Amino acid sequence: MKKIFLFLLLMPCFIMAQKTTILKGTVKNNQKEGIEKVSVEFGKTGTVTDENGNYKIRIPLDEEVTIVFSHVSYRVFTKKITAKSRTVLRFSPTLILKTENLEEIVIKDQRDAASGIQSININTVKNIIGPNAGIENTLMTLPGVNNNNELSTQYNVRGGNFDENLVYVNGIQVYRPFLVRSGQQEGLSFINTNMVQNIDFSAGGFQAKYGDRLSSVLDITYRKPTETATTIDASLLGASVTFEGQFLDKKLSTITGVRYRDNSLFVNSKQIETNFRPRFTDIQTYLSYDFSEQFQLNFLGNFSLNNYNYQPLSRRTRFGTVANPLELIVFYSGQETDTYLTLLGALSADYTINDDFTITTTVSRYNTQEEEYFDIAAQYNLGEVDSNIGSENFGDVEFSQGIGSQLNHARNDLDALITNAEVKATLKKENIQWSFGIKYQKEAIKDRIREWEIIDSLGFSIRPPFHATNNQPYESFEADIVPFQNIRKDNNVAINRISGYAQFNQRSFWNDHEVFYNLGIRAHNWSVTGNGIDSKNQIIISPRGQFAIKPDWEKDMLFRFSAGLYAQPPSYRELRDFNGDVNVEVGAQKSVHFVSGMDYSFTMWKRPFKLTTEMYYKNLSDVNSYTIDNVRIRYRADNVTKAYAYGLDMRLNGEFVPGSESWVSLGYLKTEENINNQGYIARPSDQRIKFGILFQDYVPNLPDLKAYLNLVYNSGVPGGSPSYANPYNFQDRLRDYRRADLGVSYVFADANKQFESGWLSNFKELTTGLELFNMFDIQNAITNTWVRDVYSKTQFGIPNFMTGRVLNFKVAMKF
Q1: Rounded to the nearest 5 degrees, what angle is found at the Cα of 709, between the Cα atoms of 704 and 712?
Q2: Cα within 13 Å of Cα(378), Cβ side
Q3: What is the pTM for the complete model shown?
Q4: DSSP string of 491-509?
């Protein structure tokens, strides 16, 4: 009887439950944070959200109900919902804070602008079109930043080279590979764009806290996730997956990215016919655990594997003038197999003693294992092309100026291990800030070089310069036959470094004008041991200063000036000369910087714009001059060169189209060097004129259809010189670099376009698009291949052209 009575008592509840379903979700604010104690109700039924903003409530089936979300600090939000099935419904509204209508007040933080730092919007970076889409690709559109190689993420800044740029990720310095020769070997940039929160860039005159390099600083901050999400990007060039989330009551946050890239699509558009399958894989993770509000532990890890398998087959290149056209035909045999394995692990601890005093300790270890193996034989024919339009053989080679062959061999292995420990502290007091830091670093490099080159012209082996001449068959030749180039070295080098800095920042007022001061100094002590030779300790002192003023004018303008003595102690790459010998006595390259700039913010077409202008001058001494072949840099390792660089950079950015940031940049640069008092000649990075446009647009009647245009024009740089040749005899420039990339995409879903039902409700973001690289199919050259004319003994520089027009399809999603 008791059971029957209990069944009759619960039956109405059971029947009622069959006619209802569950509605649940998370109530958030604009910062994507859950809101506690939000009232959720309809009729006389209601509940409240928990500490994470989660709620659950039963609603009737097949009946329209009005759900009311209310909170004392937020505007009331209502939603009409009709449940058609017993399946659990999810609805997560975003509430807007209650605010009074006030006149608009714009508050700007001028500290970055005062220090010459350019902050780049990460959303702009994600949208920009380019073969190596990402942060470095965005930098190429800035004035003073140049790169003529679309397959490389390396860049030159204001006359410097690739090795003169500092790159930090969450305060941890990252490095470029040692043995990479060409951009197509380089693979992925270390920086994973989908993990980035902030991007700061300085093209010169940077503060003492940023380290010892001559040209620029790129300071990247990876973000701490505030929600659980997965982002997937895929295209014909590769794919990436990024996962982020919070765990353990939001104390642990993690973001992890996996990337894969295949450059076959680009390489197959070049003039060299190849069997080529370059594969690049990268895994990164950033973990952060909050033990308390004062103490935080972070870990950054990276694994990168680049496999480069290259088998050239043939090449046909026409060059010269209309009156004297020439053609180079090359047939190859052999192959190249390279492997680049990179590992990085960094652990940092942030301790906030109080609101004014913080300490950060970092330990990290970077390891690169690189193999470069190739045997490639090339037989070439350099001939004159019949340019007579009426000739039956028009366009054919009618006379061969040079016939020969070349054999290149390498078995190079490098293992570099870089370990460091650093402590940094920041002390604030009102408008004054003191910063200190000290760092110890040890670099251990094992480098095995086995590399030779044989050049044969008409059956005679060409000897290198400074050897006995071969005048066969007119004179008998009894000397040993040696390769044109032959390097056999085993270098075992260790570098110990101790560096530190102290700097003072102050923001104050001069009458009604806002002024900013920064004074800093760096010290760097290092010693090199290797191959049985110990070097003496060397030390450099680097004072730096900045001053900026924001006048109390009606126009929003800021003026700044910075100066300092910058020095670059040598890395292993700078210690090794053309022949593979290590000179442990190489000193630091030095540069005196003077940078003056102005920022002018104004309104045009009722939209915000900003004009940035900077003038700079660099006086360089103890320069370690170099030659460059694609992305490989070879140093003289002697400090016998002096140089200078000066120029003007201008950039106008703003909303040329409402809601979308675009910019136009213009730069002028002149840089020359004097090697061992032979006179001044153009440096390899003497890129006189730079013009760039980044433009974003959309269709007014269809705003989800967007277009992105990236235009770059660079005047030609010196084309380099052959091995062992005097660069003073080879000062011809490559043709101007011109490139236009176009992207078109359609946004199915994003933060402003969400769906409650249908297949699109599964996505937080969904975008598809087409990318057209080098849309005008312009032949841009990066370096020269040097071929001998056996009759005139002239060496011709045949341009190595980059990629042609390429079409790519991509899709990006987040859920």
Answers
A1: 165
A2: 25
A3: 0.81
A4: EEEEEEEEEEEEEEEEEEE
**How far apart are the C-alpha atoms of 338 and 509, rounded to whole Å?**
58
Angle (CA) 155-159-165 rounded to 5° is: 45
Write out the two tokens for 297: 């532990």
Strand partners, 801: 781
Is residue 121 within 8 Å of residue 661, measured between CB atoms? yes
Q: 3-state DSSP call for residue 624?
A: coil
Q: What angle do CA 654, 660, 665 make, to 5 degrees?
A: 40
**What is the SS3 assignment for 749?**
strand
Task: Give the SS3 label for residue 791.
Answer: coil
Q: What are the pLDDT digits (tens) for 95-141?
A: 888 754 444 444 455 667 788 888 888 888 887 887 877 888 888 88
Query: Could you give the CA distance from residue 115 to residue 561 in angstroms, rounded to a whole number?
Result: 9
Could you read off the pLDDT of 583-598 as tens digits, one per residue?
A: 999 999 999 999 999 9
Give the H or E element holding residue 404.
strand 397-429
Q: Which structure tokens are listed for 553?
A: 């004018």
Element (H, E) at 658: none
pLDDT digits (tens, 9 = 90+) for 2-46: 454 444 444 444 444 457 888 888 998 877 788 998 999 988 788
Give the C-alpha separation, 146 to 125, whole Å: 17
What DSSP letter does each residue of 567-591 carry, written as one string? EE---HHHHB-TTS-B-TT---EEE
| Residue from 146, 173, 148 nearest 157 by CA | 146
Please choose, from the candidates 569, 578, 575, 571, the residue with its C-alpha nearest in 3D space to the C-alpha of residue 634.
Answer: 578
Nearest Cα neighbor of 686 from 632, 643, 724, 722 is 643
Do β-strands 165-169 and 216-222 pair in parallel, antiparallel, or remain unpaired? parallel
- Rounded Cα distance between 696 and 694, Å, is 7
Residue closest to 605 by CA, chosen among 567, 655, 542, 640: 655
How would residue 472 be classed by pLDDT, with cut points 50, 70 and 90?
low
Contact 652, 663 (CB under 8 A): yes
Q: What is the pLDDT of residues 63-97, one digit of tens each?
A: 888 899 998 888 888 888 888 777 778 888 888 88
State both tokens at 655: 């909303």
3-state class of 167 per DSSP? strand
Sequence letter at residue 345: G
Cβ-based burial of 473 (10 A; exposed 0-12, middle 13-18, buried ≥19): exposed
**Using CB atoms within 10 A of its CB, is residue 259 exposed (0-12), middle (13-18) or buried (19+)?**
buried
Residue 702's CB is within 10 A of a number of other CB atoms, namely: 9
Structure token pair of residue 732: 């011809």
What SS3 state is found at 81?
A: strand
Q: Return phi, psi of residue 266, to 5°.
A: -80, -45
Any idea of the CA torsion for 180, 181, 183, 185, to the nearest 10 degrees? -50
List, in sequence order, every residue forming a beta bridge with 69; answer none if it has no partner.
Answer: 40, 77
Contacts of residue 111, defined as CB under 8 A and 6 or more positions apart, other chains included, come to 507, 516
The span from the first CA to the last CA of the chain, in angstroms, equals 54
How many angstroms separate the CA atoms of 573 and 496, rounded?
15
